[in-house]
Amino acid sequence: MKSYLLVPKESIETHAHPGVRGTEQGERVLQRSTALQFMISGRAPDMLRSLGLRSATLPGRLPEVSAPPTSSKKKKTAKPARGRGGKNEVQVAVNNDGPVMEPATASEVGTYRHMPLIGATMAHFTSEQAERVAKEELGRDFEFIPDTVQLTFPGPVSAGQLGPRNQGLSSLINREWPEECGVNSAHAQGIKGAGVMLGILDTGVDADHPEHQNRLIQFRYVSLFPNSPHNPARDVRGFDPDGHGTHVAGIAAGQFHGVAPEVDLYVASVIESESIRTSLGRVAAGMEWLLHQFSRPENATRPAVVNMSLGFPVQPPQGVSDMEYRLNIRALQTLLRRLVDSNVLPIVAAGNGGAGTAGYPAAFPEALAVGAVDFSRRVASFSASGVVNQRSVPDVMGYGVNVYSSTERRCNNQAFYERMSGTSMAAPYVAGLAALYRCRSPDLTALEVRDLILDNVLKLPKTPTGRAGRGLAVYK
C-alpha cells in the first residue's frame, strides 16, 4: 500500500499559464481562478477513477472560479482516461456541484483526492496492479512523489527566562511591540489588517481562547490520512491540542496582542501535537483548502498571506533515498509557487538549528524566510541561516525571543498565555506586518508586498554576515 502525490512535470519546471487572474500590464487586482491550473492535471483523477480508485473528497459545492480563457484555435479533444496523450490535451474541468463520494466495493483498489487549485492529485493504492498501470499510463506527464518523507515545524526552544509552560496566567495590559517596529503607529492610523485574509498551517488554533474568541475563524482539520474517505478532512470549531498554532495565531492576529488583529483567519491543522510532524500530502491538502477559501467569489480579489512554520532539512533523513527526497523538495516548491501564482504571499520560519542549518521551504526563492532576533535586535543563537543553491537564508528577521502570546485553556476554561521563542514566533510577526501592508495597499501584488518588506527594514550592522538577511522587518 503506497501513497503518492501526482504532480504534472510541467508544473514543477514552469510557472502556471497566465490567465484571467490579471496578468495584463496595468491591471492591479489579481483575481484567483482556475487559469492557474495546468491543462494536463485533470488527466490524473480521470485515469485513477477508471482504474477503480475511489474519491476521498468530501461531497459538497466547491467555490465558483473562472474558467481558463479559451483560444481562438480549434480545441483539442480529450483522450480517454486510460490513453497516454500529449501535454495540454485535456482541458481542466471544475465540478461546481462538488465531487460525489463513490460507494465502497469489495474490490476497492485505492483512493484519490484531486486538488485542482494546486494542480495535484493524491493517490493511495491498495492494489499493486492498479499502481503499476497508473504509472505506465501517467508516468510520462506526472511525477509520482512518494508521500513518505515527514516534515516538521522548527523544534521548541527554551528561552531560559520564565521556566515551565503556563507561567503567564493572564494577558498583559498592553501590547509589547517596540515602537521601532511600527505596529503601534499602524494601529493608531486604523491599519489593523481589515480586509486581508491570513492563512496559517500549523497544529490548529483554540477558537475559544480569549485572544481569538470574538471572531469567526475558518478552520479545517486535515486528518492523518487525508487520502482516506473514512478519515475525511473536517471543517469544525477550531481546536489545538498542542498550543503552538494558537501561539502563532496570537502573534499574527490576536485581538489583544496580535500585529494584525482585524484580519480574517483561516487555519488548517496539519501538524500533530505529539510528534510535531506532518506529511507532504497533508500540507498539500491544507494549501488546497486555503486556496479554495481564498478563491470564493467574495474573496477572489482580496489580498492574502499564508504563514508556515514547517519544513524539510537540507539533507534527506535516514532511510530515504536522495532521489525520493529531491522529488519531495521539488513538489513542496511547486506548492509554494502555486501560492505566489495565486497572489498569496507565503511566509515561512527559517528554522531553529542555528548557523549553517537552513532548510526547505525557507531556501525556496518563492518563500519569504524569517529568522529570529530578541527585543534588543540581537540575532538569536538558534536562528537558522545559510546558503542553499546560491540563495541566502533568511531574507529578514522578526521578533522571536520570549514573545508573549496565547497558548491553551484548562478544563475550567482558565486561559493561558506564555512566552515562547523560535523562528516559529518570528514568522507570524512578519506575516502580521505583511497583512498591515496589504491592508494599507490592497492593490499591491504579493511579490510587491514582499519587496516592500525587504526594502523597509531596520539594519543590523553589528550582525555577522549572512545571519540576519536584510535586517529586522518593520512597518513604515
UniProtKB/TrEMBL annotation:
Family: Belongs to the peptidase S8 family.
GO biological process assignments: proteolysis
Residues at the active site: 202, 244, 424
Keywords: Hydrolase, Protease, Serine protease
Xref: InterPro entries: Peptidase_S8/S53_dom, Peptidase_S8/S53_dom_sf, Peptidase_S8_His-AS, Peptidase_S8_Ser-AS, Peptidase_S8_subtilisin-like, Peptidase_S8_subtilisin-rel
Disordered: annotated segments: 59-89
Ranges annotated as biased composition (Basic residues): 72-85
Peptidase S8/S53 domain: residues covered: 193-457
Name assigned to this protein: Subtilase family protein
Domain of life of the source: Bacteria
Single GO term (MF): serine-type endopeptidase activity
